[in-house]
Amino acid sequence: MRRFYFGLAAAIVLLAFIGLAQQAPSTGPYKVLKTVRVGGTGGYDYVDADVEGRRLYFARTGATPRISVYNLDTLEPVGEIPSSNAHGAVVDPKSGHGFASSKPILMFDSKTMQHIKTIEVQGNPDGMYFDPADERVYILSHATPHITAIDAKEGSVIGTVDIGGMPEQAVSDGKGHLYVDVEDKENIAVIDTKALKVTGHYDVTGKGGTCAGLAMDVRNRILFATCRDPKNMVILSADDGKIITTLPIGTNSDGARFNPATMEAFSSNVDGTLTVVKENSPTSFVVEQTVQTMTGGRTSTLDTKTNRIFVIAAEVGPPTPPKEPGGRAGRGQIIPESFSILMIGK
Question: In this structure, is residue 87 part of a structural domain?
Fold first, then answer.
């Protein structure tokens, strides 16, 4: 996952899509319950909910890189953890250990927010996933090795896996299988977590390219891959990779979640929409609703206690003028103090 910035071409496409999205009706049970403008400076990437600890974590980059921590119920600030340009953070509720995807990996105490130690890893840490089934943290890197497994109790590196491409998001079935969408290869990698070995790749070519989000209905063994080109949610079997169906989503999805309590999958999209897909049965899926959120709100997390979704976003200024005549415009800068947290629910 790349930290959030815009170029001129992307901004033009984005504005066009937003105009169309605003004309479309957004009916359904979900709405933005609360928007908190928390401000601060710097870029952002992943957001993650510690449901048991009732905290919300996300990384901020820039002059003062840190992990920002908020109360998951009230969205009041809890504190900040200094880090070195991390992309996000996850927490093991059993050990109370948190991990930030920086290089080296930062291990911290989730209660006191104090540093415990740093863990040297190879590659370039980006996304990360905590699997409660084996109490491991899986670090995702666009450079090899693509996956690094860390013991959450001890903070020690267990091993690495090369999946043949750039990983974006991971999910687990809790039975020794990790699934990872490979952004640049149009497939889903299947990993045996006991052997730390790739056992297969599920091809989604033509159905969804540049897949950046992945969620799973563990009970029915169904994967939901949110892809950017074409803009589809590809729904497939976790057992054999057979594609069940595809459904349209918003522009530039960068996160997917599945709620087993409501049987709904969610895709958070950079165009300021949250696509809600209802699983009526293991073979029947429909787009239930398109919720208007905030432009740039491409990453999300789920609070399974309250069934609320959280999206983070910030306002972006106009692209900077080209350095040379006829050159490309520079990236738009995040407007200071515009960073916001959106709470979405019924």
Answer: yes
